[in-house]
Design brief:
Layout: E1 2-13, E2 16-27, E3 31-35, H1 42-49, E4 57-62, E5 65-66, H2 72-78, E6 80-83, H3 95-102, H4 109-122, H5 124-128, H6 139-151, E7 157-161, H7 169-184, E8 188-192, H8 196-202, E9 205-210, E10 213-218, H9 220-224, H10 227-233
Parallel strand pairs: 3-8, 3-9, 6-7, 7-8
Antiparallel strand pairs: 1-2, 1-4, 4-5, 9-10
Helix pairs in contact: 3-6
Length: 235
């Protein structure tokens, strides 16, 4: 059963139609990826799910309930949390303070402490940098902070927007290993990624987004072998 359903949504920026009837389904405990070129509508889809953009038509449902009138902060508290494109960490705060910002809506001190320890196990590098100002970290370390901050909210569905952007190849591999590890801990992931090969390799199911509409869909492993995907995205 799908935990997250996007049903024929159309999203506009003023009079420009960015999403032209997009429908996707994300089943619980899956990794689902959206791949496509710049401007295809991938980030717009995530922003619509998060409540930052409002579809003019269509519906987004979480656990079968419409998110149409739910504000972004309540969507986050319900269990849908986004790791934004470009990390967008709190650069002047320490790593520890960034993680605590992820848990700002929680009041279970014991659980927060346990989750922080879990983040240190998932991202050992952050344990070494816990008191360091986050803006002084490398790009890869900042991506770790952004992901750990989101996980501190205890999401059921994690929206990840271009997590490998701007990272060296060896760090990209680490990012996707981490995505697998997070998923194995029970978190459902909707991944937006330009690195199509890496994204399809990790995905249970995938959608190819082109110019605001779904052009192809299928299991990640099947799309890797699709001639159209190979020609357009895999070189």
């Amino acid at each position: 059963m799908a935990i997250l359903e996007i049903d024929d949504i159309r999203v506009f920026y003023d009079n420009i139609e960015a999403l032209k009837g997009v429908s996707i389904a994300v089943e619980e405990h899956q990794i689902v990826t959206l791949v496509g070129a710049n401007g295809a509508g991938k980030t717009t889809t995530l922003r619509a799910i998060s409540g930052l953009l409002h579809p003019r038509l269509g519906e987004i449902r979480y656990n079968g309930e419409s998110l149409a009138d739910v504000p972004p902060h309540e969507i986050s508290q319900m269990g849908i949390v986004q790791v934004p494109e470009g990390r967008r960490i709190f650069a002047k705060l320490t790593v520890d303070e960034n993680l605590m910002m992820g848990a700002f809506a929680r009041n279970d001190r014991g659980g927060i402490a346990e989750d922080k320890e879990r983040m240190m196990a998932l991202f050992p590098r952050l344990k070494e940098r816990i008191k360091q100002v986050a803006g002084t970290l490398s790009g890869g370390e900042q991506q770790m902070v952004a992901t750990a901050r989101a996980l501190m909210a205890r999401p059921r569905v994690l929206l990840m927007d271009e997590p490998s952007m701007g990272l060296a190849p060896q760090l990209v591999e680490q990012v996707f290993q981490t995505i697998r590890a997070i998923n194995k801990q029970g978190v459902t992931i909707l991944l937006v990624e330009q690195n199509a090969l890496a994204a399809l390799n990790v995905a249970d199911f995938a959608y190819v987004l082109e110019s605001g509409h779904i052009a192809l869909s299928g299991r990640g492993s099947d799309l890797i072998d699709d001639e159209r995907v190979q020609s357009a995205y895999l070189g």
